[in-house]
Specification:
Layout (H helix, E strand, L loop, with lengths): L1 H9 L13 E2 L10 H13 L7 E9 L4 E6 L4 H16 L11 E6 L8 E9 L3 E6 L8 E7 L2
C-alpha cells in the first residue's frame, strides 16, 4: 500500500500493516473467540444479506485515538455500502449481537498510541470497487485475519 507507506515515511508514522490484513471494516460483531455457533450464525447472516456493488473513494487519513488506529476513510458513503451495513446490523441484532450503531467505513493501516495524529486529506483519493464482502476473524494481538466466509456483491 504505497499511499500509506509514503505517508508514514513523510510524517514519521509507524509503517503500514502487511497487505494481507488490510480490509475495509463494514460492521464489527465483537469479541466472541472462535465459537462454532457464533461463526455458523454469522455465516447464516452473510448468506441472507444481499449487497449491491459500489465504488468507494477513500479521501482522508484519520486517527481513532482510543484504539490508536490510523485509518483511511471516505468523506462520502455510497448508498449501496450504507444499505449493506444496515442489512448486516439488522440481521446481527435479530440474532442477539450488539453491533456498533455508528458507521464509519475505514481501512486501518497502522497504530499510533503515543501521540495524536491530525486528520488530513489524501493528496490523491484511492478509488476501489470491491466484488465481495467477507466474514473475518482477527485474533486479538495477532497480525492476521482468517476469512471465514465470502459473499459476492451483485
Amino acid at each position: 500500500m504505497a499511499v500509506a507507506t509514503d505517508m508514514s515515511l513523510r510524517e514519521a508514522l509507524p509503517l503500514p500493516r502487511p497487505a494481507s490484513v488490510l480490509h475495509l471494516t463494514l460492521c464489527e460483531i465483537g469479541q466472541y473467540g472462535r465459537s462454532a455457533s457464533v461463526i455458523e450464525t454469522a455465516k447464516r447472516i452473510g448468506d441472507g444479506v444481499a449487497g449491491r456493488g459500489f465504488s468507494l473513494s477513500v479521501t482522508r487519513r484519520m486517527h481513532f485515538p482510543g484504539a490508536g488506529a490510523l485509518v483511511l476513510a471516505a468523506d462520502e458513503i455510497p448508498a449501496e455500502l450504507a444499505a449493506l451495513n444496515r442489512g448486516l446490523v439488522r440481521a446481527l441484532r435479530r440474532e442477539g449481537f450488539k453491533p456498533p450503531s455508528g458507521f464509519k467505513p475505514h481501512l486501518t493501516f497502522g497504530y499510533e498510541k503515543s501521540r495524536l495524529v491530525p486528520e488530513a486529506a489524501l493528496l490523491h483519493p484511492i478509488k476501489w470497487s470491491p466484488e465481495t464482502f467477507e466474514l473475518v476473524s482477527s485474533p486479538r494481538g495477532e497480525t492476521r485475519h482468517d476469512i471465514l466466509g465470502r459473499w459476492r456483491l451483485t
